[in-house]
Amino acid sequence: MGCEEIHFGPVWFIPGVNRGRYPYCHSLYIQGPGIIIDPASDEKRLLEIRDLEGVNEVWLSHWHEDHITYLDLFPGAAVRICRRDEPPLGDLEILLDWYNLSEPHRDHWRQVLTETFRYRPRRADAYLTEGDVHSFATTTVQVIGAPGHTPGHLAFYFPEQEVLFVGDYDMTSFGPWYGDRNSSIEATISSLRRLREIPARTWITGHDTGVFTDNADERWRRYEDIIHQREANLLNLLARPHNLQEIVAAWLIYKKPREPLAFFEFGERALNVKHLDRLMEKGLVVELNGRYVQA
Ligand SMILES: [Zn+2]
Fold first, then answer.
1. How far from chain centre, in Å, is Cα 161?
2. Would residue 152 be called left, alpha or beta, if left means φ above 0 and alpha means ψ between -120 and 50 degrees?
3. For the chain, how many structural domains are there in total?
């Protein structure tokens, strides 16, 4: 399968530029009601769909910038998102807070968000709620709560087509992201297990992989295992005391320094902090004068 545009009846997979890798994502289009989900895939194709098919609503799986870039193509469309993920959509400073960004990174990201991601404050016109079923003449959509990556992250299931859009539980070999202020490893694991139970026959990811139909169980298992492997690697490292800077310099998560360094160091730190918190909660690690070590 992969990254070509595919139509599952009225449910269209719209591949993102560069396989939907950051700063792009994949979009869905629902023909009939005219809904675009996650409008940050391919500006040219989104414009065609808007002008030839019509877009009445934009739905967002979550608040991240790489899912909202082309929202400005649809000024008249109603925006829907989970209520818990709405605050960053309406206020850039809240968005920066939710990434735990401090100066000088904050100033850099303010500019990137405004210029590259075309960020403009937008309010939700209505909310998407876990468990809701939206019935249209062409298809039915079930809204599936899948928090963890963000507090209000949603997946979408189309039972007639047996298609599940999993958003940013994207099945990449890197593994899941849960490094924001309000991200949660526990919630991510629960969501992965919930999504795994949905009786889909086709899965669509928000990035990279795109559409797949094979080895779903194995893919879910491998994807969740990355979380446990990250934690085991960190615990091993902490056989001897390390401060946070030393932990980041071990590149347990990204495996090696990558460019731009500031971006990947930020990610390495954010994910490790979540694992440190979890290991301390479990009583497996303690902090002594800014250094972390196995309990
Ligand atoms: Zn995301």
1. 23
2. alpha
3. 2
Q: Does residue 236 share a domain with residue 209?
A: no
- Tokens in use for 54? 């019509």
Q: What is the pLDDT of residue 121?
A: 97
* Same domain, residue pair 58 and 103: yes
**Percentage of the chain lying above the pLDDT 90 cut:** 97
Centroid of ligand 1 to alpha carbon of 177 (angstroms): 7
Please indicate, yes or no, if residue 54 is contained in any of the structural domains: yes
How far does the centroid of ligand 1 lie from the alpha carbon of residue 63, in Å?
7
Cα(176) to centroid(ligand 1), Å:
9
pLDDT tens digits for range 104-117: 889 999 999 999 99
Report yes or no: 182 and 274 within 8 Å, Cβ to Cβ.
no
CA of 64 to the centre of ligand 1 (A): 5
| Torsion angle of C-alpha atoms 94, 126, 40, 149, degrees rounded to 10 | 60
Ligand 1 centroid, distance to 101 Cα (angstroms): 16
Residues in the chain, pLDDT under 70: 1-2
Domain boundary residue, one of 214, 237, 268: 214
- Domain limits at 282? 229-294
Quick one: which of 198, 213, 188 has its CA closest to 142?
A: 198
